[in-house]
């Protein structure tokens, strides 16, 4: 299963690769990274249909925001699941994300236990 | 004889009063009384008003009076304007704080998660070295690994702590409407007394305060609106610090005066009770009722808005809680909150 992580901070890749080290080795999990909304869409358009099944995106990014990205993905690739990972966990952001079609909303600092639970749940279906 | 003297005085007073009444009604008139002449006629006193017909002088006087009033109004306006500017600044500062607070969560995400990861790696290293523990070098390495794990634990804990501070900063800059939930009141007290203390230390004129928390471990959870209730705790602590700062700076304070804040929680008649006590200058009896009314402040100049305690009272009313004050001048002030919503 291919998962795309979108965040403007590069260290996110190192963090996720290390946190999911075992899952990448043992289970059928592949992580790809994009550091802007634009880059994320480019990755999704690489193959038709896209190989990515789940996108986790930051909200506050220069250029395209995570919410805009979410709306574009939901329009172009409605089959792809999208969840948000943001430091801005207030109800306004939360409602906007969920109303735009986000599956889940995770806050930063990321609780990897619940994030792993979510990914495992999708892996098993 | 005595009676007569009284009568004379009476009539004199009557006349004087009348003259004064006229004087007052002269504000808009054309006549001006410039003096009163007393004349005795027989047993009685006569009053003669010495008047001048001088409308111009009236106008001059009125004008200067108007000018004086205008000046006073202008002064008040200026003060109000300054207060507004200050509030505006505070509001924009609040927005700024909210933005910064959110952004701090990004580095905190890396701090807590990378420290956790490093601990995981160390555990793996320990597993790898397990079979060679008999070697002295490996034994030393184990000791080092243990220390590194402790340090990483500290990094994680302090990152977590910073996160808590950021969260409460956000809570207060938003000033929104929280929810009523069962809350670990002791944890809330610990967090916000600490926050108030550090806030005071980071601000102008910090003072040293000995803080004593006497929290009943059996208090359990109490239903409060954590967001607004924590504001009350912050406020009571802030008032205590201000009062103790005032006492510490006053020449009448004893040389060995040491500011002390005591915050207690306990159960009484099935109610959760919180007390916040300082050993500041105390509140005089005649002010005890006043200090809970809006805009009443004992703080000098622009230091206080006079709203802190009345807002606290309002918040507590929403909680159906009681706020009372006990104080002895020169010794202590103790605020007491009684929460009846114990679950
Ligand atoms: Mg970001």
Automatic annotation (TrEMBL), chain A:
Modified residues (4-aspartylphosphate): 58
PROSITE patterns: RESPONSE_REGULATORY
Entry-linked InterPro entries: Bact_response_regulator, CheY-like_superfamily, Sig_transdc_resp-reg_receiver
GO annotation terms (biological process): phosphorelay signal transduction system
Coiled-coil stretches noted in the UniProt entry, renumbered to this chain: none
Domain Response regulatory stretches: 2-123
Keywords per UniProt: Phosphoprotein
Protein name: Response regulator receiver domain-containing protein
Naturally occurring in which organism (per UniProt): Salinimicrobium sediminis
TrEMBL record, chain B:
Name of this protein: histidine kinase
Xref: Gene3D superfamilies: 1.10.287.130, Histidine kinase-like ATPase, C-terminal domain (3.30.565.10)
Highest taxon listed in the record's lineage: Bacteria
Keywords noted in UniProt: Coiled coil, Kinase, Phosphoprotein, Transferase
Coiled coil: 56-90
Annotated EC: 2.7.13.3
Catalysed reaction equations from the record: ATP + protein L-histidine = ADP + protein N-phospho-L-histidine
Lineage: Bacteria, Pseudomonadati, Bacteroidota, Flavobacteriia, Flavobacteriales
Biological source species: Salinimicrobium sediminis
Enzyme type, top EC level: transferase
Domain spans labelled Histidine kinase: 99-343
One GO molecular-function entry: phosphorelay sensor kinase activity
Pfam families reported for this sequence: HATPase_c
């Amino acid at each position: 299963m291919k998962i795309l992580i979108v965040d403007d901070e590069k260290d996110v890749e190192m963090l996720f690769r290390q946190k999911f080290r075992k899952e990448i080795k043992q289970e059928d999990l592949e992580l790809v990274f994009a550091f802007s909304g634009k880059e994320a869409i480019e990755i999704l358009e690489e193959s038709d249909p896209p190989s990515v099944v789940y996108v986790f995106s930051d909200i506050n990014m220069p250029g395209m925001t995570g919410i805009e990205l979410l709306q574009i993905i939901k329009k172009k690739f409605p089959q792809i699941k999208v969840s948000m990972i943001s430091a801005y966990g207030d109800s306004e952001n939360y409602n906007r994300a969920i109303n735009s079609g986000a599956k889940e909303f995770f806050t930063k600092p990321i609780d990897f236990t619940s994030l792993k639970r979510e990914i495992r749940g999708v892996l098993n279906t | 004889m005595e009676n007569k003297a009284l009568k004379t005085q009476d009539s004199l007073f009557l006349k004087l009063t009348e003259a004064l009444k006229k004087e007052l009604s002269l504000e808009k008139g054309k006549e001006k009384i410039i003096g009163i002449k007393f004349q005795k006629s027989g047993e009685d006193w006569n009053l003669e008003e010495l008047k001048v017909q001088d409308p111009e002088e009236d106008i001059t006087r009125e004008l200067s009076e108007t000018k004086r009033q205008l000046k006073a109004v202008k002064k008040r306006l200026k003060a109000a304007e300054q207060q507004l500017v200050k509030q505006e600044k505070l509001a924009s500062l609040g927005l700024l704080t909210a933005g910064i607070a959110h952004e701090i969560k990004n580095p905190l995400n890396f701090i807590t998660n990378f420290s956790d990861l490093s601990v995981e790696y160390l555990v793996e290293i320990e597993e790898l070295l397990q079979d060679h523990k008999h070697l002295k070098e490996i034994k030393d390495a184990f000791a080092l690994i243990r220390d590194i794990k402790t340090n990483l634990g500290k990094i994680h804990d302090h990152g977590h702590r910073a996160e808590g501070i950021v969260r409460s900063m956000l809570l207060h800059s938003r000033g929104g409407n929280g929810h009523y939930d069962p809350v670990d009141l002791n944890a809330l007290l610990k967090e916000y007394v600490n926050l108030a203390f550090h806030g005071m230390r980071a601000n102008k004129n910090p003072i040293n305060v000995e803080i004593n928390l006497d929290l009943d471990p059996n208090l359990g959870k109490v239903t409060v609106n954590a967001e607004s209730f924590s504001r009350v705790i912050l406020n009571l602590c802030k008032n205590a610090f201000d009062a103790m700062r005032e006492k510490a700076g006053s020449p009448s304070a004893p040389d060995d005066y040491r500011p002390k804040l005591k915050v207690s929680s306990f159960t009484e008649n099935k109610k959760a009770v919180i007390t916040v006590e300082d050993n500041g200058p105390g509140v005089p009896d005649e002010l005890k009722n006043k200090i809970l009314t809006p805009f009443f402040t004992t703080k000098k100049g622009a230091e206080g808005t006079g709203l802190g305690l009345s807002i606290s009272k309002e918040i507590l009313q929403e909680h159906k809680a009681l706020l009372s004050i006990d104080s002895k001048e020169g010794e202590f002030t103790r605020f007491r909150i009684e929460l009846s919503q114990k679950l």
